[in-house]
């Protein structure tokens, strides 16, 4: 058995502490992520999917519990430090890119994710060939728009760029937060296919929140369902491969397809 | 003629203030009110340093540092103290008034018989008012070149990204707090530097000379943008200085119409308001269309 690359141990996040509205939005969550895991995450609104990602990313502090990276405690590590091993793509295409900077400038920024940035010149030109090659993988014309301000791209191109920015420097853990949800169905499918290609080809360890049951079934080697701040189902391997949509629907009734 | 040369000289000197404000107002997207305190602080620090025997060059650098320290305080209040940036700036601006009085020991100080950067053989050998033009060009060129270089470094790109999308910047491991503190520091340093040069130009520092500075600096930025339209970052920096000179011409014109110096702040505000409303006015009255028509021959 391989060691987990990343672990959540008995994580509790309490909000409105000490008031009548006190509630655990993360309720004793345990999760061990193994190298190469591609985990799809389902759950209704308010189930704790975003909270889970914010706990992993360090955006919200945990009330109790432990977060381990390769066995080392990183529970109190800052958001900025965690970006050394962690990258994230958000649902909103506007969240992941700098609109007034060009595509190439955005890529250059992301190449130094988690690293020191000093007074050395940025050397944009020497990176252009590499950027052209990387962007052409997405099959959506991004490679012809390297010098375009990101704000002028289509939502699909912008989100494809966000994905590339999250993976250009290989992350130990990649978090995809419904990254295709804001796109039209066709663009969404294209980006999802490209995403899956990249993840499987590069053996990335990835957690992906999705609202699409089909995507959750089709992609990844493991599926977890969140409900009321708890992980209610966690299946992987053959068991996941043989899972049908009907069975999955039985896991929870109030999620919309 | 000499009045135009004088306007260019003032425009160049105030261009430094415009460039300083550009860093916060346009790049970080901050309305930083600290400038109304750091501009006279730079002037006060420079004049006080000259009084205590420092060379004008050293005194001017001290003004930069004084402005920068005030900007750092605003940055700390905003990032670590979680005070909204507008209010943080107003707090430091208000406090700066007292600090400036402490620095000078009185409300104003004259440089009448003191050395300044303008009082040397070369600059004094030039025709009237050309001294401030030459000094202005040199300082603006140095400042612009340094900022242009900085913005092309990895740190500079992180700084731009922080202003453009702080969430993304943080997710790439950029310490947005550090970038914002640095931006406010450098910005206010440049504004202090501008205050020092204006004080040496005018021959005095006054504790009230900060009133309206933000409007003048904003006018430089906005006029440059309205006149030149879409530009690259480097071109925009240069456009600020040109906008600053154009602003001086507009003021000159208005004064020629019979207004006097007491009306200046009113005029500044109106000029800025008009330029900021330009996109709306243009849509409504088709200004560009009319201008273009006025430039072509009758057929």
TrEMBL record, chain A:
One MF term in the entry's GO annotations: transmembrane transporter activity
ATP-binding keyword on record: yes
PROSITE patterns reported in the protein's UniProt record: ABC_TRANSPORTER_1 (PS00211), ABC_TRANSPORTER_2 (PS50893)
Leader sequence segment: none
Residue ranges occupied by any ABC transporter domain in the UniProt entry: 6-253
Keywords linked to the UniProt accession: ATP-binding, Nucleotide-binding
SMART domains named among the record's database cross-references: AAA (SM00382)
Presence of the UniProt keyword ATP-binding in the record: yes
InterPro entries, per database record: AAA+_ATPase (IPR003593), ABC_transporter-like_ATP-bd (IPR003439), ABC_transporter-like_CS (IPR017871), ABC_transpr_LolD-like (IPR015854), P-loop_NTPase (IPR027417)
GO cellular component: plasma membrane
Protein name: ABC transporter ATPase
Originating species: Lentilactobacillus otakiensis DSM 19908 = JCM 15040
From TrEMBL, chain B:
Main location: membrane
Pfam families cross-referenced by the UniProt entry: BPD_transp_2
Protein name as catalogued: ABC transporter
Alphabetical keyword list: Cell membrane, Membrane, Transmembrane, Transmembrane helix
Ranges annotated as spanning the membrane: 12-28, 48-78, 85-109, 129-151, 178-197, 209-228, 237-258, 264-281
Membrane-topology descriptor: Multi-pass membrane protein
PANTHER family: ABC TRANSPORTER PERMEASE PROTEIN YPHD-RELATED-RELATED (PTHR32196), BRANCHED-CHAIN AMINO ACID TRANSPORT SYSTEM, PERMEASE PROTEIN (PTHR32196:SF69)
InterPro entries noted in UniProt: ABC_transp_permease
Locations listed in the record: Cell membrane
One GO MF term: transmembrane transporter activity
Gene Ontology cellular-component terms listed: plasma membrane
Highest taxon listed in the record's lineage: Bacteria
Signal peptide: none
């Amino acid at each position: 058995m391989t060691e987990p690359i990343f672990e959540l141990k008995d994580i509790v996040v309490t909000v409105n502490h000490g008031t009548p509205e006190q509630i655990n939005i993360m309720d004793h969550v345990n999760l061990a992520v193994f190298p190469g895991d591609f985990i799809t995450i389902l759950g209704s609104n308010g189930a704790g999917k975003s909270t889970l990602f914010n706990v992993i990313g360090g955006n919200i502090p945990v009330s109790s519990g432990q977060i381990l990276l390769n066995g080392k405690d990183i529970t109190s590590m800052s958001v900025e430090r965690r970006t050394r091993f962690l990258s994230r793509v958000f649902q909103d295409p506007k969240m992941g890119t700098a609109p007034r900077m060009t595509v190439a400038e955005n890529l250059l920024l992301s190449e130094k994710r988690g690293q020191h940035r000093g007074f050395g010149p940025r050397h944009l030109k020497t990176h252009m060939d590499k950027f052209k090659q990387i962007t052409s993988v997405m099959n959506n014309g991004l490679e012809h728009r390297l010098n375009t301000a990101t704000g002028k791209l289509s939502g699909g191109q912008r989100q494809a760029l966000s994905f590339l920015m999250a993976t250009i420097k290989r992350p130990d853990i990649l978090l995809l937060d419904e990254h295709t949800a804001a796109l039209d169905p066709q663009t969404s499918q294209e980006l999802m296919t490209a995403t899956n290609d990249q993840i499987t080809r590069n053996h990335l360890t990835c957690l992906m929140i999705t609202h699409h049951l089909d995507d959750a079934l089709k992609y990844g080697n493991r599926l977890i369902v969140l409900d009321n701040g708890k992980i209610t189902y966690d299946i992987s391997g053959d068991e996941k491969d043989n899972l049908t949509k009907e069975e999955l629907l039985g896991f929870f009734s109030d999620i919309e397809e | 003629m000499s009045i135009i040369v004088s306007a260019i000289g003032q425009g160049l000197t105030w261009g430094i203030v415009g460039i300083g404000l550009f860093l916060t107002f346009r790049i970080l997207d901050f309305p930083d009110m600290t400038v109304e305190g750091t501009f006279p602080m730079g002037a006060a620090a420079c004049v006080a340093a000259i009084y205590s025997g420092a060379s004008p060059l050293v005194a001017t650098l001290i003004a930069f540092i004084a402005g920068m320290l005030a900007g750092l305080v605003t940055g700390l209040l905003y990032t670590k103290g979680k005070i909204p940036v507008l209010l943080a700036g107003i707090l430091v601006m208000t406090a700066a008034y007292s600090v400036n009085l402490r620095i000078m020991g009185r409300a104003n100080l004259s440089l009448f018989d003191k050395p300044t950067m303008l009082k040397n053989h070369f600059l004094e050998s030039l025709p009237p008012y050309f001294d401030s033009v030459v000094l202005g060009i040199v300082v603006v060129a140095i400042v612009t070149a340094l900022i242009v270089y900085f913005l092309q470094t990895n740190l500079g790109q992180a700084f731009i990204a922080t202003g453009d999308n702080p969430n993304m910047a943080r997710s790439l491991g950029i310490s947005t707090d550090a970038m914002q503190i640095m931006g406010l520091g450098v910005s206010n340093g440049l504004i202090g530097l501008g205050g020092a040069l204006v004080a040496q130009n005018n021959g005095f520092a006054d504790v009230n000379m900060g009133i309206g500075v933000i409007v003048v600096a904003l006018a430089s930025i906005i006029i440059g943008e309205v006149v030149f339209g879409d530009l690259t970052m480097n071109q925009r920096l240069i456009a600020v200085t040109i906008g600053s000179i154009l602003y001086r011409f507009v003021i000159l014109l208005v004064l020629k119409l019979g207004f006097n110096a007491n009306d200046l702040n009113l005029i500044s505000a109106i000029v800025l308001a008009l330029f900021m409303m330009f996109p709306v006015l243009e849509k409504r009255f088709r200004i560009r269309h009319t201008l273009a028509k006025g430039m072509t021959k009758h057929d």
